[in-house]
Amino acid sequence: MRKFAFGRAWRGAVCLTGMLALGGCGLFSHDDGRYDPAPLTEYKAGMSVRQVWSTSIGSGSGLGFVPTVLGNAVYAATPDGSVGKFDLQSGRPIWKSQAGVKLTAGAGSDGTTTAVASPDGDVVAFDDSGKVKWKVRATSDVNIPPVVGYGIVVVRSGDYRIQAFDANNGERLWSVQRPGPALALRSTAQMVLAEGLVITGLPGGKMLAIASDSGNVQWEGTVATPRGASDLERLTDVVGAPRIAGNLLCAVAYQGRIVCFDVTAGGRPIWAKDFSSVSGMTLDQRFAYSADQNSVVNAFALDNGGNVWKQAALKNRQLTAPALLGGALAVGDLDGYVHFLSRSDGSLMARLSVGGGAIVSPPQTTSQGVLVQTGNGNLVLIGTN
């Protein structure tokens, strides 16, 4: 029964992806062009960007692959089993290794232990010389990146179970499970480790904060509430990574809301807006930014949720979650372009092709620029001139 549910979830998610991008899956009687990616347009350049370096991790890409940046080190992985540590300033490989299995998620790291995961639920941990430390099996498939810190490796498996393993030896320490919906969205999702807590969104619109040392649930909030008569209509998943700014914890869901909670007031929502995203969000000190399910980028006032601006020039280009670079937002698209939008008004400022096909991993803000994992398994650092 469980296996059937996950197969059903996968098929529904594939259909949804096609529907959002192209109006497919037979839900529309004809193609009138409304779901076509917007053509690239001319704009007045507002900044100058350049490729600082490019290096190969391995081969391929996927929704479960997000580089981890720690100081001047980058940890990354690709579906062919490649795992590596790279110098942020130069892109030089510090070490490269093989997991020995195909991968669906990675790479999480605390600078001492680096973890990746496979379609069968194998969790593989490396030491910081690139040697395998241990390998264990989670209760189900793992499709979102592990997180590592506080002496543990944490994964979220396809059976909606959050599991923690000892970072030194792989011993299972605790497990938390919540009932899940019949359908789950195949999208980028990430967990966060902060203040001794594992913070994760879940299919069904919930978000949990779990004590990293004990596995006790400290807080549970609702990002979105499923609505509708069918499983497809009720599909509402928290996407991307939960974001923290000061006393705010914010998240966004597909077919749900974008919402910010006050962590100093017991996690009480301070504002929420109906919204639907398939990629996630980011924050600065003024605004929350997210592309909706049609790749229209929105900015919301962080204090009250007011919609500050919208940018529809990249509609249907299957944008990633945004990253910050100076006064701009960086978003990747289906053709391997990274677009830069003004954080103040959303105007287009710059564009750079990194190649390699569709960018599905969210770009990462670093001290040296924006780091992009490309569709063909490269890491590219983009800086300003």
Explain this structure.
The protein has 385 residues and is mainly beta. It has 3 domains: 40-61 and 325-384, Thrombin, subunit H; 64-185, Lipocalin (Beta Barrel), CATH 2.40.128; 189-319, YVTN repeat-like/Quinoprotein amine dehydrogenase (Methylamine Dehydrogenase, Chain H, 7 Propeller). 5% of the residues lie in helices and 44% in strands. The protein contains 1 helix and 32 strands. A 4-stranded antiparallel β-sheet has the order 1-32-31-30, with no helix packed on it. The protein has a 4-stranded antiparallel β-sheet with strand order 2-3-4-5, with no helix packed on it. A hairpin with a 5-residue loop joins strand 16 and strand 17 (217-222). The longest helix is centred in the N-terminal third of the chain and has 21 residues, at 2-22. The radius of gyration is 20 Å and the shape is globular. Residues 1-29 have low confidence and may be disordered.
